[in-house]
Design a protein that fits this description.
This protein is of the alpha/beta class and 272 residues long. The chain is built from 11 helices and 9 strands.
Amino acid sequence: MYTSSVLMSLFWKESPLFLDMALESLFLQTVQPTEIIIVTEGILTDALKAVLQKWENKFAESDFKVVDAKDTKGLPGCLNVGLKLAIGDYIIRVDTDDYCYKHRIETQLAFFYNHPDIVLISAVMEEYDTSLQHLLGMRKVPNNHNDILNYAKWRNPFNHPSVAYKREVAVSLNGYPLVNANEDYAFFTNFLVNKFITANIDEVLVKARTGKEFASRRSGKKYLKGELEALAYIYKIGFFSVPLYYFHIVSKICVRLLPSYFVKNIYKNILR
């Protein structure tokens, strides 16, 4: 079986309870990761430090690494810090507020073993409220590579909280682009434009917290600025044509400047 590196980014404002549950879900995996790398940004609270210490003491089969990002800021920069330190054959991306089903790592490593030409995958993702008690829906994405290519022209074809990818390929592509939103979409299109083969597993492997705050985080000028940076990157690497690039710019401007109530309904009734 391949080796794996779980890659997480932890911001100082995040919830100790959510982090505790995320790490518990990794502890219960049927196949333990080779290592867990948690890149921290900012001065952590005592509560977050306590959670990290608790699970560092519990993990025996995995190398548990907590890395200070220091002067590096933002999610993509922190992920790149961890990516450079990772030693696993495959990276398993885990968000610190999500919950992985216990067979996630086993399923994804087995998929790579059975499909050695594929270097990037994700899976179906269940979307819950912040308590993880009420299922709000699920996000399915195309399974085969050709459908992924077509879908990616319009939307992100992978569920980032359930993504796994070949480490050496990600490093060769210089990791996550340093944009302030949609860094995952930009990162994935770099795999596609460089003709690496991808897929998605038609199975639920992750519970993701979305809820009321999800839409509000995706409204306003600040988030729009980050999205436009991501779109510019995707256009620069040659994945978007000129007309498609400008279509995305106009559509993002229209959607992101709407009140969060309308954005929430767009996500609920159209994008999901």
